[in-house]
Amino acid sequence: MRRLGRIPKAWPLYLNRANVFVHQRRFDLAIQDLNTVLRLRPGVLLVQVLRGQIYEHLGDYSHALADYDRVVSITSSLPLKCAFAQNSRAWLRATCPGASFWNGKQAVADAKSACNETSWSEVAYIDTLAAANAEAGDFDSAIQFEQRAIKGRARKRGLPKTLSADAPLANANSLVTSAGSLPTRVTSLGGPTWTKQLACQKIWRD
């Protein structure tokens, strides 16, 4: 692979291996391969967001935010890429364990922009908007958007037997069990969202 690291067309190989390393939870090696991708093909900007997600998972929030900020700053004319970065930045600003990174107002703005840019079709972005509103103290909106996210997920997957579209949504209410509570989740690196992004070859090449 060392020789391949000098060949620009070899970048997909490093991207695919990074995906394997993520599934194996060998995150340091995944970052190394993503660094190589960015060196060989700087225009593959979503790779920088994926690297940011790994940094975030490892607790390196400063590097994660730097990756998200850079992609947002240079993709204003590329709405899908910008939305992906904005969603990631919004999640970090709303749920990061480090209080110094919290910014509910910016998180709401980023998440809402990501939803608008994708015509409100990405359930994960709506879920992020719910978390952002909770961090901003707008718990009514947090419940509203979380309900919308849950219903959207149910429509995509088919409703489970124990949940109807109009049933009380405990997950939404759990966002606001107490005033000022902060919703948290563990980033599911290597899961469906990560794999979906790696599979979007059309997006990578835009």
Which helices and strands occur, and which strands form pairs?
Elements lengths: L10 H13 L3 H14 L5 H13 L2 H14 L4 H17 L8 H14 L5 H13 L3 H19 L12 H4 L18 H8 L1 H5 L1
Helix pairs in contact: 1-2, 2-3, 3-4, 3-5, 4-5, 5-6, 5-7, 6-7, 7-8
Task: Give a quick set of tags describing it.
mainly alpha; Serine Threonine Protein Phosphatase 5, Tetratricopeptide repeat; globular
Written account of the structure:
It is a single chain. The chain is mostly helical. It has a single domain, classed as Tetratricopeptide repeat domain (Serine Threonine Protein Phosphatase 5, Tetratricopeptide repeat), CATH 1.25.40.10. Helices cover 65% and strands 0% of the residues. It contains eleven helices and no strands. Helix 3 packs parallel to helix 5, helix 4 packs antiparallel against helix 5 and helix 5 runs parallel beside helix 7. The protein is globular.
Number of strands: 0
> Radius of gyration over alpha carbons?
18 Å
CATH superfamily: Tetratricopeptide repeat domain
**Outline, from the CA principal axes?**
globular
What's the CATH C level?
Answer: Mainly Alpha
Low-pLDDT stretches: 159-187, 191-206
Oligomer: single chain
**What is the ordering of alpha helices and beta strands?**
HHHHHHHHHHH
In CATH, the topology is named Serine Threonine Protein Phosphatase 5, Tetratricopeptide repeat
Q: Main beta sheet, described?
A: none
The fraction of residues assigned to DSSP E strands is under 5%
Average pLDDT number: 79
Helical content (DSSP H or I, runs of 4+): 55-70%
Please count the helical segments.
11
Give me the CATH architecture, please: Alpha Horseshoe
Summing up helix and strand content along with how strands pair, one would put the structural category as mainly alpha
First-last Cα distance? 26 Å
How many domains? The number is 1
